[in-house]
Amino acid sequence: SLAQAFRDGGDTAAREDMALCSLFGGLSLANAKLGAVHGFAAPLGGMFPIPHGAVCARLIPAVVDVNVRALQARAPASPALARYDEVARTLTGRVDARAEDGAAWLRSLVDELEIPMLSAYGVVAGDIARVVEKARKASSMQGNPIELTEEELGEVLGSVV
After folding, report:
1. Are 59 and 128 in contact (CB under 8 A)?
2. What is the largest CA-CA distance in the chain?
3. Exposed, middle or buried: residue 18 (CB in 10 Å: 0-12, 13-18, 19+)?
4. Residue 33 in 3-state DSSP?
5. Whole-angstrom Cα distance, residue 51 to residue 53?
6. How far is CA 98 from the centre of its chain?
7. Residue 146 carries which DSSP code?
8. Where are the beta strands (DSSP E) in the chain?
9. Global pTM?
10. Sign (positive or negative) of CA dihedral 153, 86, 57, 61
């Protein structure tokens, strides 16, 4: 419904779906720990004039990619991997979808919605180390399914600048 509401703002069914999604998302966030997306969003929002939704949207596919690779390498038995696969099946509608497919679907949606890269808000490659340092200290990082290294965090941010 998000893409449909974006394409046709007058589609009341799509807008109703998005209102419910917003409610469910808020309830979920209030009852779950956050993760790397919000770990980055806080310092980025404080340092640059970036809308919170835009920074989160642009970061989600990159964080999923890096989290999945980190889990596969360092915690292959983690239940988080199965959950990423489950979400990918839900997003793509494919019974054979894997986490990587979900990340690709998310990236495609973010591109379709024309969410700008973070450079559009003034973030440059030279800012990555400073933002990563601040993000590592963010309490939201505690909710990430695996602790990401400084290099992995830099990869996430570098891919969206």
Report:
1. no
2. 47
3. middle
4. coil
5. 6
6. 17
7. S
8. none
9. 0.90
10. positive
Q: Which amino acid is at 44?
A: L
Taking the CA atoms of residue 33, residue 39, residue 45 and residue 48 in that order, the dihedral angle to the nearest 10 degrees is: -170
Tokens of 144: 């990430």
**Residue written as token pair 């602790």:** 147
Helix axes of 36-47 and 150-158: crossing angle, nearest 10 degrees: 60
The candidate with the shortest Cα–Cα distance to 117, out of 74, 160, 88, is 160
DSSP-derived secondary structure letter, 113? T
- Mean pLDDT, the chain cut into blocks of 10 residues (161 residues total): 92 94 85 90 96 96 97 97 97 97 97 96 97 95 96 98 96
Tokens 């449909």 locate to 4
All residues at 6 or more sequence positions from 144 whose CB lies less than 8 Å from its CB, including other chains: 35, 36, 39, 67
CB atoms within 10 A of CB 45: 17
Contact indicator for 110, 57 with CB cutoff of 8 Å: yes
Q: Which phi and psi angles does 145 have, rounded to 5°?
A: -65, -15
CA angle 139, 143, 149 (to 5 degrees): 80
Pair of tokens at residue 159: 């891919």
